[in-house]
Amino acid sequence: MSLVRKRSVTIRGHRTSYSLEQPFYEELAALASARAIPLAALIAEIDATRPREANLSSAIRIYVLEQVKRLRMGQEDGH
């Protein structure tokens, strides 16, 4: 079982926090690394596109899940 850990990030000059389980954090960091962008930049992108009713932590989890599913679908299609 992975415990939730609270982390802080600065987005567009504003300090905020998000809480993620370690596996989500590791995958998020890997996605940022694969795009060669800072983790804070990826989080800022997620924050900018999330529905306002969704909190940042949930939006990050959904983003990670969507990206993992997208990558898996590409592998299943033989790409």
Let me know the average pLDDT.
92
Q: Give the structural class.
A: alpha+beta
Oligomer: single chain
Query: If you compute it from the alpha carbons, what radius of gyration comes out, rounded to the nearest whole angstrom?
Result: 13 Å
Low-confidence stretches: none
Order of helices and strands: EEHHH
Beta fraction of the residues? 15-25%
Number of helices: 3
Protein name: Ribbon-helix-helix domain-containing protein
Organism: Pseudaminobacter soli
InterPro entries: RHH_dom (IPR027373), RHH_sf (IPR038268)
Domain Ribbon-helix-helix: 5-67
How does this model look, in words?
This is Ribbon-helix-helix domain-containing protein. InterPro entries: RHH_dom, RHH_sf. Pfam families: RHH_4. It comes from Pseudaminobacter soli (ex Zhang et al. 2022). With 79 residues, the chain is of the alpha+beta class. Helix content is 57%, strand content 20%. A hairpin with a 2-residue loop joins strand 1 and strand 2. It starts with a strand and ends with a helix. The protein is built from three helices and two strands, in the order ββααα. The chain has a two-stranded antiparallel sheet with strand order 1-2.
What is the strand and helix layout of this fold?
Elements lengths: L3 E8 L2 E8 H13 L4 H11 L6 H21 L3
